[in-house]
User: Which sequence fits this backbone?
């Protein structure tokens, strides 16, 4: 199976599960729940849930309980996009080719949709009616990884550094930490949550964590690159917005070609972390290559 | 001990614990962490953590592990205040007698401080280095109650209904649901988390939940009342802001005296839920009375 077919199939499985598990209904909450669903079901590659599932499967775990866990990652990712797009943050009015959440539901509605999705991520992981085969110990580990990856020492912290760095002449070390928190932490967290689901040994957990760090970096470097080289139509969001907000990026430090090299290196580093694993890890190998291939 | 002394002592214990467990440091995250600490340590009555501890103690649990659990409630409550005060929401510039978070740290900073505190609430409950005496089963139950109370079917949903109801002529049933979600859910959740910590039987859990529902209602009714009758100086936030935002409130439906009656009734309902319990519940009885006494 090609990686494109693999991603297509997994995306469908993830989105079907999201339809099943997402909140719906309740008269007075109709608008609020619609606002959450609008962004959650606006498309997207579902990279984080797929990574989580792919790692669990690489370790031999094919249980349905991976799906609510994978979905919790997409809830967190989606909330972060909604809040990042707000006028007070990146002020974007286009996301995945559609009006951003606050354009559609107003700023207050978008803030609350984000808050609701963030909280719902933890609801999914602690819901006694879901993932009945998971032990409480496993759930707590998953929740800890999600909270750490998403919180102030992870994604939220990265966004805080990002906002403060706008228009600043930041050193590369700051950009590195920014990327590692803002995008890297949740991608690494996705891989770690898959490893927990798959019952990884401490050594396996460490190897996957390293893999997660490297593909997280590759992912953000390629994002930086696309913001420079792709069109708005290709991206589904405004191209060139980083330069407009005077954001530090890899291309600003290394140029387009140098940045491609850095992305390639990160992918190679990711691949080397998987050397000890068998062919069940092939989707993870292909995924790493695929992240790099996006830049063309 | 008077209830004032009790609240004073417990507040000190809660705040000491918060100082110990709250994030600090990290060069690049200094501002972000300071923004979270600014609102978390801005004072406040610490009603939710104290309720949680008081219920646990009424059931005979005096373990230190109640403290991080109690703190998680204050993190969630504080984040909700930060986001509620934003220009896109209630647009308040004063809270507890100090500039609101976005006045001090900017809108983006305030949104992220809220996101960080919300996520940190779940971090506290899943952190393996805290509450070592809690079983994983207990942690998952606590996390589920917190996520449900704080999320779209609880506090966030209540705020969504509140925002949509501004300037609308809403029926009383809507106001009732608004209050029960926006303020009631997390207060009830605080009581339930205390009951979980104390190892409540299902019957005890139900009785405490009912108690939580009634004091949550009493609390919000008195808040409505104070917004009409108290001065800005007394409140530490802008008095009369509900009327200005054309918010539906109990006084708008029942007048000041009728609203006092409703508050009194809610307190009596709360007290009757505790009839089966012994004197260890006296602080909870006094707390219910104290909520009512605030209105004078």
Assistant:
């Amino acid at each position: 199976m090609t990686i494109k077919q693999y991603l297509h199939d997994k995306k469908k499985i993830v989105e079907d599960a999201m339809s099943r598990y997402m909140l719906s209904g309740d008269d007075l909450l109709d608008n609020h729940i619609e606002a959450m669903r609008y962004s959650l079901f606006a498309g997207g590659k579902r990279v984080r849930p797929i990574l989580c599932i792919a790692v669990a499967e690489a370790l031999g775990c094919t249980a349905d309980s991976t799906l609510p866990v994978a979905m919790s990652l997409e809830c967190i990712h989606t909330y972060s996009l909604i809040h990042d797009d707000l006028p007070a943050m990146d002020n974007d009015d286009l996301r995945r080719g559609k009006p951003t959440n606050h354009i559609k539901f107003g700023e207050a509605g978008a803030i609350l949709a984000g808050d609701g999705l963030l909280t719902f991520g933890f609801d999914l992981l602690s819901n006694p009616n879901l993932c009945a085969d998971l032990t409480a110990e496993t759930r707590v580990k998953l929740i800890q990884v999600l909270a750490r990856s998403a919180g102030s020492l992870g994604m939220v912290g990265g966004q805080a550094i990002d906002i403060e760095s706008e228009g600043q002449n930041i050193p590369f070390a700051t950009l590195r930490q920014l990327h590692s928190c803002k995008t890297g932490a949740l991608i690494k967290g996705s891989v770690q949550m898959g490893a927990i689901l798959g019952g990884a040994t401490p050594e396996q957990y460490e190897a996957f964590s390293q893999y997660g760090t490297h593909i997280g970096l590759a992912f953000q470097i390629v994002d930086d690159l696309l913001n420079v080289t792709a069109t708005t139509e290709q991206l589904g969001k405004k191209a060139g917005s980083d330069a407009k907000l005077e954001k530090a990026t890899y291309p600003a430090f290394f140029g387009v070609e140098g940045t491609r090299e850095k992305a390639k290196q990160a992918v190679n580093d990711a691949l080397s972390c998987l050397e000890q694993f068998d062919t069940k890890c092939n989707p993870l190998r292909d995924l790493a290559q695929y992240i790099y291939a996006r830049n063309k």
